[in-house]
TrEMBL record:
Active site, per annotation: D416, E469
Pfam family, one: Alpha-amylase
Name of the protein in question: 1,4-alpha-glucan branching enzyme GlgB
Origin organism lineage: Bacteria, Pseudomonadati, Pseudomonadota, Gammaproteobacteria, Alteromonadales
Domain Glycosyl hydrolase family 13 catalytic: 257-628
Family assignment from sequence similarity: Belongs to the glycosyl hydrolase 13 family. GlgB subfamily.
Length: 741
């Protein structure tokens, strides 16, 4: 390309600009003083333009016509005798149309130095307010401020529907000290698509979606979308106020885990996603009617592959398109709160996928991930691990957690795969990891990240729940960060889940040899703040549904499952049940279709659903079942050694010791008549729930009467009752004056 020097461009500047190699374009394009400071020059690059006039923005009067410098779209011209910069528009004539444009190169940067400082320090909680695409009003002009972090890029441009996806039209301003690039563009519309065109240090072009995009194009496309301007008017102020005053550990917590894409589908062929309006009409009343206190959503940050279930997100700030827009999600959460249901979000800060439009080698370098694959690659999932030691990455993740809690009013976050964050050698062979600076296997940077995350989120949002899926015996997961703990509010009890599922999978004839799998969890039940979880992970990948894990005929399967749920709801710890388990889905969960709701036409499945509903009601009605979940004085074994009969007897206590609950669990198909159990108080007792009741599909071995206590010491208690123990059943007892639920 042959060029010559002009009064407006130096030859090398013109060539670099046209080749996309001129970094500081704002020093060249736009309005600037002439070299002799005796006038103003406007320069612009608009490929395809035939002519360009400069208009005064105040009265739209023509000030000057720009000269066409070359055929590649460079124009420039002097503004007459004007010496003071002024707001202007460009009237651009194209072959088929005329456009009036606010030249983006006339606007100064909108970045706030304090925001930039906190971002670079690794302590910014609201990075999404100035990175990504944000609507602003600048010098009485309304537009979108685009900003992206790409410290190792030679040049960054925003391309989209508004500029014919031409990377020459909107090159961003570079801030070398922070690595940020930004530009303010007035001539854009809500929902238009855009991406960032990045030139790396080697001159290679990279096209990336916006890491801070709050909306993205539907799969298989992957462009970011300019935010919609619609405002949402929240109605849950009373809920948030009350939430801030609650003590979650002393409250009932029964969580219904849902994958919105497959809870219930719609359409004539049953393949359409259920949108938020339908979920408000169907899911929210269902959760309330079933008595769950919390709803936990599997990840809803934008993810390209359905089969990842959301655990490989690319748009961490973008609610997935599958169920509606951001305001639809807000309306859904708002309705949950109005119905007294807390909403938790499954959040994925442990890793991210390699999709080329995502974070991987974002500016041509390992920006969000570690350069060393021994620290930056996850061998199990073929994903990349965040560099928790990099301040800007921490700001990105802190801001994302803050975003979901603040903008969408989620009541807490469940962090996926925390164990993989804590250990440098997680799922690695000896040659695949390197020790930390102290010679250990602990990921010290990830530990600090988690501690700071939890401390700051609890400080900003009193009453929320930060929950860890942590599958090892890492000490202090739910200890305060001031005590060197990780600072989570709760931890999933994976040991209880694994042990008890193994137990119910064994034949009743041999359960006596597995008795410890039911009782071992009480050895460590009070070392952490636990949630007993039967999640989606237990009913996929060939593991079978919960019902099909249990041996025997259908009667035994259903009876055992009901007894197991009774044991779970009575056991210390909060509760989590994955969708479909509440009515004993027979098949494994399939993310491509609805749950098998037709099974509720059959009595056994309806019975399990009724049992779970009544367990939730009983759980919330009797404080002994939840108030002292994490204190050893809230639990007492009455008999944990009856392995031969497969029977457990234990007692739960709340703050009021005169209102205990006694639980008998029989995991054998035998009925036990005249069975004596100890009780702690001298009141009459009622059987408040029995999983063998005919209403639940059982054989109706029940205890209908009010039972007077006997002054016979038994099982370490001063009093006792003689009852009938149902087969493969759970019997729950409470003293009067409580009424039956």
């Amino acid at each position: 390309m042959m060029t010559v020097a002009t009064p407006y461009f130096q030859q090398d500047s013109e060539i670099a600009l046209l080749n996309g190699e001129y970094t500081d374009v704002f020093s060249l394009l736009g309005m600037h003083s002439s070299s002799d400071n005796k006038g103003l020059i406007v320069r612009c690059l608009l490929p395809g333009a035939l002519s360009i006039d400069v208009l005064n923005a105040k009265d739209l009067r023509k000030v000057a016509s720009l000269e066409q410098v070359n055929q590649q779209g460079l124009f420039a011209g002097k503004m007459g005798r004007r010496v003071k910069p002024f707001a202007y528009l460009l009237r651009v004539q194209y072959p088929l149309c005329e456009q009036l444009i606010n030249d983006p190169y006339q606007f100064d940067s909108l970045l706030n130095p304090d925001d930039v400082y906190l971002f670079g320090e690794g302590s910014q909680l609201q990075t999404y307010h100035f990175q990504g695409a944000n609507w602003r009003e600048h010098h009485d002009v309304k537009g979108v401020h685009f900003c992206v972090w790409a410290p190792n890029a030679k040049q960054v441009a925003v391309v989209g529907d508004f500029n014919l996806w031409d990377k020459k039209r909107h090159v961003l301003r570079h801030h070398p000290a922070s690595g940020l690039w930004d530009i303010f563009i007035a001539d854009v519309e809500p929902d238009q698509h855009y991406k960032f065109a990045i030139c790396d240090v080697h001159g290679n072009e990279i096209i990336k979606s916006d890491p801070y995009a709050v909306a993205m194009q539907s799969s298989p496309h992957n462009a970011s979308k300019i935010p919609n301007l619609d405002h949402y008017d929240w109605q849950d102020g009373e809920w948030l106020t009350e939430r801030a005053s609650r003590e979650p550990h002393a409250q009932p917590m029964s969580i219904y885990e849902v994958q919105l894409a497959s809870w219930r589908r719609s359409g004539d062929d049953g393949q359409d996603y259920t949108d938020y309006s339908q979920l408000i009409a169907e899911l929210v009343p269902y959760v309330k009617e079933m008595g769950f206190t919390h709803l936990q959503l599997m990840p809803i940050s934008e993810y390209p592959f359905d089969g990842s279930w959301g655990y490989q997100p690319v748009g961490l700030f973008a609610p997935t398109y599958r169920f509606g827009d951001a305001n639809g999600l807000k309306a859904f959460i708002d309705e949950c709160h109005l119905q007294g249901i807390a909403v938790l979000l499954d959040w994925v800060p442990a890793h991210f996928p390699r999709d080329p439009h995502g974070l991987v080698r974002f500016d041509g370098s390992c920006l969000y991930e570690h350069e060393d694959p021994r620290r930056g690659e996850h061998p199990d999932w073929d994903t990349l691990i965040y560099n928790y030691g990099r301040a800007e990455v921490r700001s990105f993740l802190y801001s994302n957690a803050y975003y979901w809690l603040n903008e969408f009013h989620f009541d807490g976050l469940r962090l996926d795969a925390v164990s993989s964050m804590l250990y440098l050698d997680y799922s690695r062979t000896a040659d695949q990891w390197i020790p930390n600076e102290l010679g250990g296997r602990e990921n010290l940077q990830a530990i600090c990240f988690l501690q700071e995350l939890n401390a700051r989120m609890y400080q900003c949002f009193p009453g929320i729940n930060m929950i860890a899926e942590e599958s090892t015996a890492w000490p202090g997961v739910t200890q305060a960060t001031s005590n060197n703990g990780l600072g989570f509010g709760f931890k999933w009890n994976m040991g209880w889940m694994n042990d008890t599922l193994r137990y119910i999978s064994s034949d009743p004839l041999f359960r006596r040899y597995h008795h410890g799998e039911l009782t071992f969890s009480l050895v460590y039940a009070f070392t952490e703040q636990f949630i007993l979880s039967l999640s989606h992970d237990e009913v996929v990948h060939g593991k079978g549904s919960l019902l099909h894990k249990i041996p025997g005929d259908d009667w035994q399967k259903f009876a055992t499952l009901r007894a197991y749920y009774g044991f779970m709801w009575a056991h210390p710890g909060k509760k989590l049940l994955f969708m479909g388990n509440e009515f004993a889905q027979r098949n494994e969960w399939n993310h491509n279709q609805s749950l098998d709701w037709h099974l509720l036409n059959y009595t056994p499945h309806q019975g399990v659903q009724d049992w779970v509903r009544d367990l939730n009601q009983c759980y919330q009605q009797y404080p002994a079942l939840y108030q002292r979940d994490h204190n050893s004085d809230g639990f007492q074994w009455l008999d944990c050694n009856n392995a031969d009969d497969n029977i457990l007897v234990f007692c739960r206590f709340g703050i009021d010791k005169q209102q205990p609950v006694v639980i008998v669990v029989n995991m054998s198909p035998q009925v036990f008549h005249h069975f004596r159990i100890g009780v702690p108080t001298d009141q009459s007792y009622n059987e408040i729930l029995n999983s063998d009741h005919r209403h639940y599909g059982g054989s109706h071995v029940v205890n209908d009467a009010t039972y007077e206590i006997q002054a016979t010491e038994w099982q370490g208690m001063p009093y006792s009752l003689v009852i009938t123990v149902p087969p493969l059943g759970c019997s729950i007892w409470a003293p009067e004056p409580h009424e039956l639920p």
